[in-house]
Amino acid sequence: MAQRVFVNVVGFTDEERHALNLLFRMSEEHATAFALWQPQAPEPARVALIDGESYEARVELELPRNAEIPVLWVGPQAPFKAFRKFARPIQWPEIIRALDELYPFDPTDSGFDIDLEQLDTLPPDSGYSDTVPPDTQPPEVEKPRRALIACASLDERLYLRAKLALAGLTIADEAETAPQALELVRDRDYVLAIVDLGLGGLRGWDFLKELSRGTHPIPKVIVTASRPTFGERMRARSAGVAAFLAKPPDPVRLQELLAQA
Does 37 share its domain with 121? Predict the structure, then answer.
């Protein structure tokens, strides 16, 4: 009987995630099927694949959910507990061999005509179609949820990144100024943004309106400030902000807001 193994994937570029998604789709035809783990998955992840060069790598490594499962580490400074470590550029057959050691998976036993070596250079717009007929279409791999942290303080960004990771948002971009944040928003989709009202280059409240109601609106925008006044709270609400929290944010209230993202 086929088994499904959920993989907690942390970090990686869009091109690398494209290759991973293709591997997961290919595995649907085999005795062991691999799938991207999400917080709403029906069971816990049984292996973690972590990009050691991502900001969230070390935070993710310490989370309880990864304490008892094998870790595949990509990048330098691999932790002692890593089951296997890999360097870039990623050789995808090596990843498969590591998964195969943990959960048997033979990518050649169903007649796939794609060379796994090609995954090292396969771009998202390569023209290769990984679709299958509707009656055998595997479940779509859900697009990873991405958050934006806009704050000038490195310490505060690290604190917020840790809280996001605990809430299941392990992919987060950082901006030190409002212009940097707007540049990121133009190119990427975010489910949530946490913004420090003291952010450098903040153009009044137009910046916050752009985040919540602009060309690429972010569903939930949370603002933090040292001592928010009543007037600031009201203006934040009119700008479409979901919540205005004093610094440092109350952990319980912040966790509630993140759970709704």
Answer: yes
Structural tokens at position 115:
């060379």
Q: Is 155 found in the same domain as 87?
A: no
Say if residue 11 is in the same domain as residue 131.
yes
- CA–CA dist 248, 160 (Å, integer): 10
User: How far apart are the C-alpha atoms of 204 and 225, rounded to whole Å?
Assistant: 14
**Per-residue pLDDT band at 47 (split at 50, 70, 90):** very high
Distance CA 50, CA 57 (A): 6
Compute φ and ψ for 245, nearest 5 degrees.
Answer: -115, 145
Token couple for 114: 């794609």
Query: Are 159 and 213 part of one and the same domain?
Result: yes
Instruction: Give pLDDT tens digits for 92-103.
Output: 778 877 887 887
For residue range 120-136, what is the model confidence (pLDDT) as tens digits? Answer: 444 444 433 444 444 54
